[in-house]
Design a protein that fits this description.
Radius of gyration: 29 Å
Distance between the termini: 27 Å
Largest sheet: 6 strands, mixed
Helix content: under 10%
Shape: globular
Bound molecules: zinc ion
Number of strands: 45
Number of helices: 6
Number of domains: 4
Oligomer: single chain
């Protein structure tokens, strides 16, 4: 606002000077048509941004390399009324070099520029540009120094009293490198007999879980590069048959165990439920203290996408808040096709690029997608998070943290919410806090960091009661996507293996609440099927024998390695049965006959393992998807205005190879090759107006080729919106 007042003053001063010194060249405009356009402001929004904020500088929220950034140009109008037919351009320089395709045309325009002030919620009153400073595959300094020159009416088609004030320059904008956390997902096969709604049982919708759909809200709001490292775990669905309302902590323990048995290991794992059988919409394993979460796949409208962003927010360490975006206005740079229309004002339920100031931050519990966006505080929290920070752009960041295999204890357990003493909100729970089956494992793992303020504690003791290892930790009951706290919450600790552990003790606020004492005998186990050397096709029942001389109740987990033990995926965790039906189409193909199945049995603390090897499983083609451009309206092609960059974003994950490398992703428009990579920005000035087919081809190491395609329309630049 101050800037606008200053501009108006400057313009007035200019007019006074003209009056005093007589007509100049620019004053040849007839007085009746006297109009002057200027660039009043530039807002750079990767999803949310500060502008004209009382306490924060303009454009001071972190700008991210490799992420779509929208520049909204406000037009200053000096005259007697709105001015029609106003267009603009944006020049972008990275470290002094003009970006390919620069100068860019806005996605919308020409527009009718309004007499100020311009309400930021009115997207169609600003010229909106979108571009992406390369980040993922481009080496270079950690911060790109970006210069923008925004110009209104660059062609000079509108006669103005002053043509000399049509540009605004923003220089030395720092675009920083960030990392996208790796998040894998598994479908939950929910078979609780007491669930009466068929929409809430069985398997979740395959479509809703997909990259670009399930994680849609995350990649449109989080300050991370395109595309998120979100992928389908190459594992069977997780079977869950007890009431999720009362045993959600067990589901989270199972998800944590599933992640622990994955190698390479993602930062987080997310389980998708069919429909919405859980009272809390979703739940995370802690606030900054867990690695697993689950949520619904409920429409009406798209609750599931926001729940996913919310629960991952909890895992990152965010608590619930009551924040609105106000006074800021968000913008969805991933939105394409209908983002700016003549009627695009702030309608909270509307489908649009602009995100009203009345929307709530997604950590506000229990909202629908259309009621939520990201507020600046949440945005900056994530941008500064250790999983999102990146030391340098000079290395291509692998999606997975590099971890060496080591021996560790996986110690799961649960706590019941205080207040549940009166009403039994945890039927069958053995006490207010308890341990479940502990595993001794070997694999790549991030150990649980010590939380010195934690009120819960684990102690590993030897036979004499000497403490060999101890660590404080914390749990939280406010981890659902609901105002309602969870009744029972999980914890899963990954602690280093120490020798001679005789018992594991669980404490809460200094008091012992449970202990697991090592029994004299290891479980004795033997895999009956499959046999060594078998080829696994169709459904295969894995069966085993098990015996425990102490009569301990056993739990079983199954791992599969496609490469003789270098990498692993879990097949099932914490089974009580001695069989598991495997569908080999859901797991990675073996490297030759190097497939191996490992059975792990625990009696509570003693862990036994056995393996069957030389198994053959056939390879799988990659999953290839175009994430952008995709129309926001089903059945319609996305549109791009000629001169505005065409930003292509794709993702491909292969069960055997993992994320396909940049050079294995080829983009085409029609038959013409555009380039390679997960992200590609194309200059549309060289592309003909009309409808085109965009194809993304992904090729895995076994030369399996998979195509994904989308239709786009390149609109004539001169066509008015
Ligand atoms: Zn929550």
């Amino acid at each position: 606002m101050l800037r606008q007042i200053f501009l108006i003053c400057a313009l007035l001063l200019g007019s006074i000077i003209e009056l005093l010194v007589g007509p100049t060249a620019s004053a040849s405009v007839p007085a009746a048509l006297a109009v002057d356009l200027s660039v009043a402001n530039l807002e750079m929004t990767p999803s949310i941004q500060y502008l004209d904020n009382a306490t924060n500088a303009d454009n001071s929220l972190t700008l991210v390399r490799g992420r779509r950034t929208t520049v909204r140009m406000s037009i200053g109008v000096f005259g007697t009324g709105a001015v029609a037919g106003v267009d603009g351009q944006l020049e972008v320089f990275i470290n002094g070099v003009a970006m390919v395709g620069s100068p860019f045309s806005p996605e919308n325009g020409p527009i009718t520029a309004q007499l100020s002030p311009v309400n930021r919620e009115e997207t169609h009153y600003t010229l909106n540009f979108e571009f992406e400073i390369p980040g993922f595959s481009i080496v270079g300094p950690a911060t790109s120094d970006v210069k923008l020159i925004a110009t209104v009416d660059p062609a000079g088609t509108i006669a103005e009293s002053n043509e000399g004030n049509n540009s605004m320059v923003l220089d030395h904008l720092g675009f920083e490198c960030r990392r996208s956390p790796s998040i894998t997902y598994v479908p939950i096969n929910y078979t609780f007999a007491g669930e009466t709604d068929p929409a809430n049982t069985g398997l979740p919708s395959v479509i809703k879980m997909l990259p670009g759909i399930g994680d849609d809200f995350i990649w449109h709001t989080y300050p991370i590069p395109d595309p998120p490292n979100y992928y389908a775990a190459p594992v069977p669905a997780l079977n869950f048959s007890t009431d999720v309302d009362t045993t959600s902590a067990t589901l989270l323990n199972d998800l944590e165990a599933t992640r622990a048995l994955l190698f390479p290991q993602p930062d987080y794992i997310y389980g998708w439920l069919p429909g919405n059988p859980f009272f809390g919409n979703g739940q995370a394993a802690g606030i900054g203290t867990g690695n697993a979460a689950f949520g619904n796949t409920q429409d009406s409208p798209n609750r599931y996408q926001r729940t996913f962003a919310h629960e991952i927010g909890h895992l990152l360490g965010l608590s619930h808040n009551g924040s609105l975006l106000d006074p800021e206005v968000g913008f969805d740079g991933g939105f394409l096709g209908h983002e700016v229309t003549a009627t695009d004002d702030c309608d909270a339920s509307g489908v649009q690029g602009t995100k009203c100031r009345t929307l709530k931050d997604f950590m506000f519990a229990g909202q629908l997608t259309t009621a939520a966006w990201i507020d600046p505080i949440t945005y900056e929290f994530i941008a500064a998070h250790s999983l999102v920070q990146k030391l340098s752009c000079s290395l291509i960041t692998p999606p997975f943290l590099s971890l060496e295999p080591r021996e560790f204890f996986l110690i799961p357990g649960q706590f019941v919410r205080p207040g549940c003493e009166a009403v039994d909100c945890c039927p069958g729970c053995p006490g207010p806090g308890f341990l479940t089956h502990i595993y001794e494992l070997r694999g790549p793992v991030t150990l649980t960091p010590e939380n010195l303020e934690g009120t819960r504690r684990i102690e590993l003791l030897d036979a004499e009661g000497k403490v060999l290892f101890a660590q404080n930790f914390e749990v939280s009951f406010d981890t659902t996507d609901s105002e309602e706290p969870a009744n029972v919450v999980p914890f899963t600790l990954f602690v280093p293996k120490v020798e001679n552990v005789q018992q594991v003790v669980l404490l809460s606020e200094g008091k012992v609440v449970d202990r697991q004492v090592r029994s004299p005998n290891l479980p004795i186990i033997r895999i009956l099927a499959p046999k060594q050397g078998e080829t696994l096709k169709d459904q295969k029942v894995i069966t085993w024998e098990a015996e425990d001389k102490d009569g301990d109740e056993l739990r079983f987990s199954l791992q599969y390695s496609p490469d003789g033990g270098k990498s692993f995926v879990p097949l099932a965790v914490n089974l009580t049965d001695q069989k598991f039906v495997l569908d080999p189409s859901q797991i990675p193909g073996s490297r030759g006959q190097a497939g191996l199945i490992r059975l792990i049995a625990t009696d509570g603390l003693n862990t036994a393992t056995t393996e069957v090897n030389r198994l053959l499983v056939s390879g799988k083609p990659p999953q290839v998807q175009i994430l952008k451009p995709v129309s926001s309206v089903a059945g319609e092609s996305a549109t791009v205005r000629q001169g505005s960059p065409l930003i292509l974003i794709g993702q491909a994950y292969d069960a055997e190879d993992g994320f396909l490398p940049e050079e294995s992703l080829q983009w085409l428009i029609g038959e013409k090759r555009l380039g390679k990579g997960r992200v590609l920005q194309v200059d549309t000035k060289t592309l003909p107006v009309g409808e085109h087919k965009i194809t993304l081809t992904g090729i895995d190491r076994d030369q399996n080729r998979v195509d994904a395609a989308e239709m786009i329309i390149i609109n004539d630049k001169t066509r008015s919106e």
